[in-house]
Amino acid sequence: MDVRLPPHNGRLVSVIDMHTGGEPLRIVWSGYPEIKGENLLAKRRYAKEELDHLRKVLMFEPRGHFDMYGALIVESEMSEADLGVLFMHNEGYSTMCGHAVIALGRFAVDYGLVKAPVSPETQVNIHCPCGLVKAFVQFSDGKTGAVRFHSTPAFAFVTDITVSVPGYGDVILDISYGGAFYALVSAQRFGLDVCESRTRDLVEVACAVTSAVKSQVKLYHPSSDDLAFLYGTILTDGKDQFSNEPTANICVFADAQVDRSPTGSGVTARIALQHHKGMIGIQQTRTFQSGATSSLFTGKAVQETQCGEFPAVVVEVAGQAHYTGIASFVQEPGDSLANGFLLK
Ligand SMILES: O=C(O)[C@H]1NCC[C@@H]1O
In 3D, which of 220, 114, 214, 123 has the Cα closest to residue 173? Predict the structure, then answer.
């Protein structure tokens, strides 16, 4: 059967879909209008201000769903970058996304964004809004495999602060930065278990924490005000002290969106926090498990560094992404739901 273009408004947006540890990634590779801006953070602002209707078309139903995640490939102003990327979710545009970097590393090698890949690993420099992230993609017999990446400097922002969470009382928690800021607290504090409890119960608690922290704690990042916002809350199993056993967590980010993966930027933030508290050493590899799907990432601090006045670490996170499909999306004239909608 010939596949013909359906009736549409003139715009055809083509994507490649992947997932990393169950978390979807819709990579937009053609059909998006030019994203203007003299640097990546300016492009992020432009996408937010001028093109947000297209995020909704691609992330929301009927083409996506409440928990869809996307990546827009853009040009980077950094000479060492192989590609630039903007991340999209159900609320807007993130500054870092580890599961996406793991998928994009493979995509960049498989689709020729990097010339002459080498075995056993090909380096792909991905310019994310938080900075340059270096991905190392397994490559042998012409095939790509697992990916590890080195984060931008990650740091504990504040530890053991008390936040008043309506409905739950005073909660002691940490805030850590792994390319995005997260509040971190053990689910046990709320009588929940990140692997066993119902997802909706975990989401309710995490959202209450996120909203309390947003209203009570002012965040700050030494590089840019664009990075200084709380992305979400990570509920953990409380097993922060180093061990060879996996530690599980569930990340609730953006508008109550649930990460199916262990969360690359979350693993980065957790290791920065654990290192800050003396619970993990440099080069000690820890396994992180998603409370949602049981998928695994590994992580380790590979280098001590500085981020402004914050002692920081570079974290290496490793995982595996898979392809799920390709698609070209249209909006048909006369479709009252063509711009996308969400069920909450
Ligand atoms: O892996 C990560 O870092 C991301 N996954 C969805 C939420 C985070 O951006």
Answer: 214
169 alpha carbon – ligand 1 mean position (Å): 28
> Is 195 annotated in the active site?
no
ipTM value of the model?
Answer: 0.99
- Does residue 339 form part of some domain? no
Q: Which domain holds residue 91?
A: 9-150+323-331
Are residues 271 and 260 part of one domain? Answer: yes
Asked whether residue 1 carries a pLDDT value surpassing 80, the answer given is no
pLDDT digits (tens, 9 = 90+) for 49-92: 999 999 999 999 999 999 999 999 999 999 999 999 999 999 99
Are residue 279 and residue 158 in the same domain, yes or no? yes
Mean pLDDT, rounded, of the chain: 97
Here the CATH number for the domain that contains residue 89 is 3.10.310.10
Q: Residue 249 and residue 185: Cα distance in Å, rounded?
A: 10
The DSSP output letter for 105 is H
Q: Are residues 143 and 160 in the same domain?
A: no
Report residue 77 as tokens: 């102003």
Question: Which residue, by CA, sits nearest to atom 9 of ligand 1?
Answer: 97
What total of structural domains would you count in the chain? 2
50 & 172 share domain? no
Element (H, E) at 266: helix 264-276
**Residue with CA closest to ligand 1 atom 6:** 259
Q: What is the pLDDT of residues 128-176, one digit of tens each?
A: 999 999 999 999 999 999 999 999 999 999 999 999 999 999 999 999 9
pLDDT at 3: 80
pTM of the model: 0.97
Q: Are residues 24 and 131 in the same domain?
A: yes
Is 90 exceeded by the pLDDT of residue 344? Answer: no
DSSP string of 107-163?
Answer: HHHHTTSSSS--SSEEEEEEEETTEEEEEEEEEETTEEEEEEEEPSPBEEEEEEEEE
Is there a single domain that holds both residue 303 and residue 165? yes
Residue nearest to atom 8 of ligand 1 (CA): 97
Q: Which residues line ligand 1 (CB under 6 A)?
A: 23, 69, 94, 97-99, 251, 253, 259, 261, 263-266
Same domain flag for 310 and 233 = yes
For the chain, give the percent of residues with pLDDT over 90: 97
Nearest-atom number in ligand 1 for the CA of 102 is 1
